[in-house]
TrEMBL record:
Single annotated GO MF: phosphorelay sensor kinase activity
Annotated Gene Ontology cellular component terms: membrane
Organism: Companilactobacillus nodensis DSM 19682 = JCM 14932 = NBRC 107160
Residue stretches of biased makeup (Basic residues): 168-178
Cell compartment(s), UniProt: Membrane
Keyword presence, Ribonucleoprotein: no
Name the UniProt record assigns to this protein: histidine kinase
Domain Histidine kinase: 1-154
Primary location: membrane
Residues of the full protein shown: 183 to 360 of 360
Keywords: Kinase, Membrane, Phosphoprotein, Transferase, Transmembrane, Transmembrane helix, Two-component regulatory system
Region span, Disordered: 157-178
Length: 178
């Protein structure tokens, strides 16, 4: 999968629409500032899985304020996605551990909400495999934001890729002709 690429805007909008449908009791602020045609260097299902993990958590660990913000933007080199909630937040000591496998902040509280403590460790590994970063900022009692950064495919890389493909195609033709 590692050399797969994904057009990010349609995926981002699809994930947003899915969650809007599933959580009609929430306000979901949506800010899409992704340049049309932006392509990220990640397999589509992997990016979708990471977004689902972060959004699931945002809904699961929201308190009375049923509001989430989902935003994304691109510059010339990277895509940044932020998933923000205004819920329980995570204490400093726990923030260090939430990406560890099976770590859950408050065992009793979390058990009620279901889960194994695996989601975030999977999300982080997936993003790092594709040379991206996944970071968190949180304030107890006010909420949490997770930020993903992923490298964009540059136009020149695309051009090189298709040049190489064209070359190997013409090589193949020549060998077939022999
Ligand atoms: P699952 O394996 O189903 O994802 P989980 O939600 O417990 O279960 P992780 O997604 O790895 O597992 O999260 C680890 C812990 O980090 C959670 O148990 C929760 O305590 C804390 N956490 C994760 N996201 C948030 C959030 N948005 N706000 C507050 N706490 C969070």
């Amino acid at each position: 999968y590692l050399d797969q690429t994904t057009e990010v805007k349609p995926l981002f909008i699809q994930v947003y629409n899915d969650f809007k449908m599933l959580h009609d009791d929430f306000v979901i602020n949506f800010d899409d500032d992704i340049r049309d045609g932006s392509i990220v260097k990640i397999y589509r299902n992997h990016l979708e899985q990471v977004l689902v993990i972060l959004l699931d958590n945002a809904f699961k660990y929201s308190a009375d304020r049923k509001e989430i913000s989902l935003s994304a933007s691109t510059n010339s080199e990277v895509l940044e996605i932020a998933v923000q909630d205004y819920g329980l937040g995570i204490a400093k000591n726990d923030v260090k551990r939430i990406f560890n496998r099976f770590y859950r902040v408050d065992k009793a509280r979390s058990r009620k909400r279901g889960g194994n403590g695996l989601g975030l460790s999977i999300a982080k590994r997936l993003i790092e495999i594709y040379h991206g970063t996944l970071e968190v900022e949180s304030v107890v009692g006010s909420g949490t934001v997770f930020r993903i950064e992923l490298p964009l495919l540059q136009d020149t890389e695309e051009a090189n890729d298709s040049e190489e493909k064209a070359k190997s195609r013409s090589k193949k033709k020549k060998t077939e002709a022999k």
